[in-house]
């Protein structure tokens, strides 16, 4: 029972972060048909802004808020500077641009800050645990789960109740017809990047606080996981991004928990094999469109 | 009916090396219903798509005295041109209400717009909270029309309103169009059902291979031998 509680806590904690990241990718994919691999560097930027906030004496939650907002603004700037000039280019050009932005930011972090990891000094109250039965759950995990769930609920309300939420969902179905509704394409794309950046910011805070440090290359692994999550859920599907996040998390944590030690080095290989098996049953992802035209 | 609402001059659309529209000149007057006829690939849909700014084109487009050449779609919509695209293209995962609200201008008085629309299309009232993708083809066409009307257009472009619909449903759709015509709304209808649309329209243009081959009053074209030859297979 304790093992099950511990498993579920870990799945929800990691799955929430994956879902937020994949939603960020899916929102941009909806409007541009682009998987933005520089999304991971937005997380890294969040980590550095959070660190700067804490080191300059800001209260922890103020530093978190500043970091998330900075990430949102950085995403808007990224769209304006890097993606807008090539907006009408092919999917391959957009993809190459996202790789270029990703690498540029990595180099800037390495040369402008440090190539080595920097510890994130989380407040002492976050380093303790709480007990559920015989299970110990760290407060960092409690925070991750709470923020992850609250963010997903807020997003659900936003997508269901707001004009821009409908516009993003509509764009995921048919971007061209969204234009026929009189909605300015550039405004919708900027808005999608802002939302995507804020999601990367929240996920970035959860990621760096859990791992306790930030380094220039740390964005790669989570963005790769988020890409896989988005593919499992169905590229461009917002519901799929959330479902995919928890599915990948459930697979990873199950293998991490119950795989025999001798087989543990093959954990990632086994994870991706399971993903391929899922995709063989759902070639366009679980919630994907049957005919996916975007790249 | 004498005021000119829309004029296209030398409208030309190319997809790479393929010339879909080769310099078409169209005119639509206030409150007029104009049919755009032609076989598949004649350039009808490309003409509509160019008018609303969805594709690049050469030539010029003037609407209500304003030059809209090269204008972005959102400006064209705000000027009073709205379009029902081929195949309806509703947002299937959104509810009918959400589809309709997306069609309305941001600062519109939504309640008044809704009441006006539901008076014209009462069937939608029962479907407001249903996902658009779950509606029948006829209901989807009504939602697509309603969505296009939410911006209170002066000119409605309708691409293949009868496509994929049973004849009785097509009758119902044309009845709605007839009601809309009484409100003074101008329409350009691209239609494969030539006889039906010619009986409905005031004037018509017939396109072949990207050019306007025939034009005139709909009733004259309905009686013309060329139209019978091309569309009915006989003289």
Largest interface: A-B, 18 and 26 residues
Indicate the mean pLDDT of chain B.
Answer: 89
Share in β-strands of chain A: under 5%
Total strands of chain B: 10
Query: Which percent band covers the strand fraction of chain B?
Result: 25-35%
CATH superfamily of the largest domain in chain B, by name, is: P-loop containing nucleotide triphosphate hydrolases
CATH class of the largest domain in chain B: Alpha Beta
- Give, in order, the helices and strands of chain A: HHHHEEEHHHEHHH
Helical percentage of chain B: 25-40%
Key structural traits:
heterodimer, A: 295 residues, mainly alpha, two-stranded antiparallel sheet, 4 strands, 4% strand, globular, disordered C terminus, B: 235 residues, alpha/beta, Rossmann fold, 2 domains, 6-stranded mixed β-sheet, 4-stranded antiparallel β-sheet, 10 helices, 10 strands, 38% helix
Short characterization:
The complex is a heterodimer of chains A (about 300) and B (about 240). With about 300 residues, chain A is mostly helical.
